[in-house]
Amino acid sequence: MLDIAAELRQWAEEGRDFAVATVVAVGGSAPRGPGAAMAVDTGGAVIGSVSGGCVEGAVYELCVQALRDGRTVRERFGYSDEDAFAVGLTCGGVIDVLVAPVPSGATVLRAAAAAAGHDAPAALTRVVRGPDALLGRALLVRADGTYEGSIDGRAELDRRAAAEAKALLDTGRTGTVGIAEDGTSCPGGLTLFVESSVPPPRMIVFGAVDFATALVRAGRFLGYHVTVCDARPVFATRARFPEADDLVVDWPHRYLRSTATDDRTVLCVLTHDAKFDVPLLETALRLPAAYVGAMGSRRTHEDRDRRLREAGVGDEELGRLRSPIGLDLGARTPEETALSIAAEIVAMRRGGTGAPLTGSRTPIHHDTHGGDARTAA
Fold first, then answer.
1. Model confidence pLDDT, tens digit, residues 295-330
2. String of b and e for 288-305 (b: at least 16 CB within 10 Å)?
3. For a disulfide at 5, which of 116, 154, 188, 367, Cβ 3.0-4.6 Å?
4. What whole-number distance in Å separates Cα of residue 217 and Cα of residue 223?
C-alpha cells in the first residue's frame, strides 16, 4: 500500500476511513508487482491499481465489503478462459490480494502511510498467511530498528518479525518472509509481507542543455529525485529547469565526489565536452551506480574512450558505460532523446532487452519485483 502513501496520508489527514487492497504475491505474467495497491474510501473514491484494470471491479467490491464488515481478507485472482465474463487476469498470471479496512483507529497502517508519504525509510510488515485471527496484523519498522504495533501481543514474535523486516528495509526490498508462531525463523507458521519504503532513487543529470530539460521531466515521471549539475551558472537556472528537484552549480566531477549515491543512482552525462566528461566519468565508473550513460556521437565516444583509458580507467569499468546513451529509437528532438534514455534506464533496471515485443518469445514482465523498491522499484 505504500506506493500510494502520499494519497493515503492526505486521506488520513482529512479524517477519511478507507480500505486498501495490496498485491502480496504474484505468479506468472502479472501486470503489477507485490506492493501495488488500490484504496477505496467510504464515499466510493478510488486511488491506485492492483492489476492495470483486469480485476479492479472485483477488488473495489472487496474494499467496499471490508469497509462494511471491518474484516481483512486475502483473495486470489488467476486466469480463467472457461468464462469470458469471469473475473481474472487476461495475461495468464496469478495475484494474491490482501484487502484491509483502515478506520481512524488503525494507527499502524496510518503511521506507515504518513512515514512513506514523507519519504521516511520504513517497512510495513503484515501477516498474509496464518491463523484467520492474525490476518492483516501489522508492525511498522523504522530505519533504526524501532517498531510500533504487534502481531499477536507476544514480544518475542514481534521482535523476530521486526528483525526480518529490518533486514529487507536495509536493502530497500519488498517481499515475504516465513516465521514460526513461537517467534523462531523456522518457516511454516506465519507468512509476513514486508513493504519497504525508501527515499526515491536519484537521477543526476550533468549538463544544463536542452536535452537535459526533457530528461528531467522523464526522470520525474519515472519516480526519480532529479538533480541537474552544471559548472556554468548562466545555464543551471530555475527558469530553465523548473521541474528539477535540485540545481547545482559546480564542476561535475567535484560534485559527484561529494554527493551521496548508491546502487540505485542513475548518472546521465550530457555535457558533451571532454574537459567535463573525462574527469566526471573517471569518477562515475568507479561508483556502484545503477546506470552511467554519456551523450555523444560514435566519434565522440571513441575519443572519450581513448582519454578514459589514458586516465587509467580499465576494461571492466568502461564496460559499464552506456555510450552513446539511450536505445536506438531514431530520436531527433530533446523529448525523443529523453524517451530513448529513459527506455534504456528502464530496460537495465528491469532486465529488459529493448527489443520489440511483437514476435518476441521473451517474458513481457520480468521477475525483478523483489529487487527494487521505491516501496522499488
1. 988 999 999 999 999 999 999 999 999 999 999 999
2. ebbbbbbbbeeebbeebb
3. 116
4. 10
